[in-house]
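Structure tokens please, single chain.
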Amino acid sequence: MPSHGKKYRQAVDSIDRTRKYTVAEAVNLLKKTSYAKFDESVDLDIRLGVDPRNADQQVRGTVNLPNGTGKSVRVVVFAKGEAAAEAQAAGADFVGAEDLIEKIQGGWLDFEAAVATPNMMRDVSKVGRVLGPRGLMPNPKTGTVTMAVGQVVKELKAGKVEYRLDRYANIHCSVGKRSFEENALAENIQSLIDAIQKARPASAKGVYMKSVSVSSTMGPGIPLEV
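Here you go.
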């Protein structure tokens, strides 16, 4: 594996590993040390003190980032009739029913979010094995199985993001772009942390948030105090 470059090592050296940073301090440091020539994503990584093998300790939900993600989110909607028309009017990138399912079965996955009306879910389950592992399967728990498809499409386009626990008890989520103002990034980070704190399972014991760090695409993680 190739070693990291000089700029990365300089970024690492600027981080005091004996302490944890406030959100504002971490954002300021990230902006100073990020060095890529492109507009890097800013990501939050959280390790939780839960057991992902237990159904009652799953952590999953959505949060509206107040300043969006800086990314253009392509949204598809599984719907018919009035709901389909509503989704199209709200700005969905592709709306369909059996035709959309066939398109996905053929290998098309050019989207980042999917919404479905409840009456479409039996048909959508046909592509569950394709959508599920990619985190694209509509789910009532995240509000993406709904009759209010227009509202959800607008929220997703505006910066509503889904967070979910992986099998190692980690949550990884994008919270914006390096080009964002510092206060905008800080607000997004705090909104995600607050949402995950509120989603703490009742059965979780001990320390819930074991570690939290923020990083740019090319940069090292900066530990946060929460």
